Amino acid sequence: MEETLTAPAAPAPSKEPARSGRTESEKALRKKRRVAITRPWTLLAPSLVVLAGLLLWPLIQVGKLSLQSYEVKFGGGVGTWTGFDNYRALLSQDEFWKYVVANTVFFAVACVVLTIVLGTLVALLLNRLGTVWRLICGSAIMAAWAMPAVTGTQVWVWIFAPEDGIAPKLAGSLGLIDPATTNWFTERLPFYAIATLNVVHHGFPFVAITVLAGLVTIPKELYEAGMIDGANAWQRFWKITVPAIRPVFMVVGILSTIWDFKVFTQIFMMPGADSQEEMLNIGTYSYLKAFAADDYGTGAASAVILTLILLIITLVYIRTLFKQGEEDL
Amino acid sequence: MNRSTRASRIGLPVAVIALLAFTLFPVYWMVSTGLDPRANSRGADLLPSGLTFEHFSYAFKEGNFDQYLWNSLLVGLGTILVSGLLALLAAVAVARFKFRFRTSMLVMVLIVQMVPMEALVIPLFLQMRDYGLLNSLLGLTIVYIGVSLPFGIWTLRGFVATVPKEVEEAAYVDGCGWGQMFWRVLLPLVAPGLVATSVFAFITAWNEFVFAYTFMKDGEKYTAAVGIFQFAGQNTTAWGPIMAASTLVTLPVLIFFIIIQRRLASGLAAGAVKG
Q1: What is the enclosing helix (H) or strand (E) of B108?
Q2: SS3 for A80?
Q3: What is the mean pLDDT of residues A27-32?
Q4: Are A6 and A141 in a shared domain?
Q5: CA A233 to CA A238: how far, in whole Å?
Q6: Where do the TM regions start and end (chain B) (predicted)?
Q7: What number is the average pLDDT over the span A35-44?
Q8: What is the DSSP letter of B41?
Q9: Nearest neighbour of B268 by CB, restricted to A152, A210, A258
């Protein structure tokens, strides 16, 4: 980086007397140093303004709002400071723990575990395929990944739609359920099972492709040595593959945790998500409190709780990146 | 040895078929329902009962979907124009200069990338309401610029770092100033990265739901992602048009992902790419 900045040095004018030449070059040097200090900040300034105005300032506002009782008035709102009342009310609420917290945590754990297991299995599979089949399977995985959350959710809802969907039709013809009376969107477990399927289907391609990128870096000799020692496939996976690409699993696991904690669209778009209390997760709870119940204070408080949880996980993630030294920060 | 090869001879094709079925079924079910003249009553029939474009034309005529797609396009283009330029400048700063707080800047970019939309939507809604920017494509574009910027800076920084410094130095030796070097040398070299980052920013805006749903209460201003949901709300059982509209939203994203799949495979572990 230093060389870049010293490179455009203006050569000292040779015709000038020696003395003034030195002051000239001193001046040029000073100017160059000033540029070296100010230029990165000039380049960063527009982005910093945007990030401060659209991400940092709103975060401060949501923190402020969570400590207020906010009333919507004509042509603007009025906030009254209430200290930690919103948090106290929220955390002492039975429904908040029984539904919101339980749904969010169990859903996130299920999604992360299933995403990583499936993603790893698919990566191992891709690693064994020839070029052509790897390309075909890779394209299919891309299709699952590319599906926007909005349209993907609509498709899963259609697949499981009461009476008409293919899943209840098939289950009905096998005699498992009575399609006319079964609605999977009104019970908590099937509701979240469908949401999990949706999120895992959308999330495992990232894991598969990242783990595959790690797998190809493991030297073949390690596996040959393992086979000579009589290790079976299961042992080779746990004793060779996992330790070799542990950092990849760390990153993939943390990122999936962050993403699966804040799932919103996939839940919110499901039928009954906004009218059934027991289906709420922390994202939909916060949103519906603020925009459907006009209780901005409580909505903001639960949004702050979610943000703090994600912040802690993010800090763990950044520490992992630093430790790995992969990111030349 | 023998046992494992036989197992893999049967196991591999089975696994490949299962994988293809699981990944592609939703896409297939979406497109085929969109084309099925009797979409709602197809039940468990794997093949559509016929092929028709009536659901697509219904989405355009009755559903106002051409307007929604146009809105999404405008918002997406506005987003990538501004956020692409800002991200490029910032990426050059963090990749090419050493300065105080540089690491803190990068950590901050990583952190703000993780902030959940649900936490931002409440304050930004109130802010935009005060500025009278609700129900406006401009207000939505401004929000998307902020949302897509951290990822843009993070990715472009990698692309800028791969341009050898010697190329820049050669430009200086040839008498270029910094500005000339930037436009004539650096910009063409990071152009592929800029395109990739911009497409991702475009997809972010194209797919985004929470802000568009909250800000746009006027039917004329819906983006395509919200347009589908409105559709579903009005008429819960009209799966043909819903799947046709979903196909229209999905296809551009799908095509792009398949084109870039090889590039994606390399160097993804560091970035955070997800819809």
Answers
A1: helix B102-114
A2: strand
A3: 84
A4: no
A5: 9
A6: 12-31, 68-94, 106-126, 132-156, 185-206, 238-260
A7: 88
A8: G
A9: A210
Question: A283: distance to nearest CA of chain B, Å?
Answer: 6
A82 touches chain B (CB under 8 A): no
DSSP H or E stretch at residue B206: helix B187-207
CA-derived radius of gyration, chain A: 28
* C-beta atoms of B246 and A210 within 8 A: no
**Is position A198 within any domain?**
yes
Domain identity same for A134 and A204: yes
Locate the chain A residue with the closest alpha carbon to B16: A137
Q: Does A131 touch chain B (CB under 8 A)?
A: no
User: What's the start-to-end Cα distance of chain B, in Å?
Assistant: 43
Question: Hey, CA dihedral for B92, B98, B99, B101, is it positive or negative?
Answer: positive
**What CATH number does residue A224 fall under?**
1.10.3720.10
Interface test with B, best of A72, A147, A270 (most B CBs within 10 A): A147
Same domain (yes/no): A297, A221: yes
In a domain, A191, yes or no: yes
A78 phi/psi in degrees, rounded to 5:
-125, 130
DSSP codes, A153-169: HHHHHHHT-TTTSHHHH
Confidence band for A16, pLDDT divided at 50, 70 and 90: very low
β-bridge mates for residue A70, sequence order: A79
Residues in chain A within 8 Å Cβ distance of B117 = 262, 264
Same domain, A12 and A121: no
Among left, alpha and beta (phi > 0; psi -120 to 50; other), residue A163 is left
- pLDDT for A35 equals 80
Looking at chain B from residue 64 to 93, which residues have their Cβ under 8 Å from any Cβ of chain A?
Answer: 86-87, 89-90, 92-93
Q: Which domains does chain B have, with CATH numbers?
A: 2-52 (no CATH), 63-265 (1.10.3720.10)
pLDDT on residue A12? 42
* Identity of the residue in B20, B86, B90 whose CB atom sits nearest the CB atom of A137: B20
**Domain presence at residue A78:** no
pLDDT along chain B (275 residues), means of 10: 65 94 96 92 87 92 91 96 95 90 88 89 92 93 95 90 87 89 89 87 94 91 89 69 94 84 49 35
Q: Are A115 and A207 part of one and the same domain?
A: yes
ipTM for this model: 0.89
> Using CA atoms, how far apart are residues B69 and B160, in angstroms rounded to an integer?
33
Q: Which domain holds residue A28?
A: 1-51
Which pLDDT belongs to residue A75?
A: 64
Report the domain count for chain A.
2
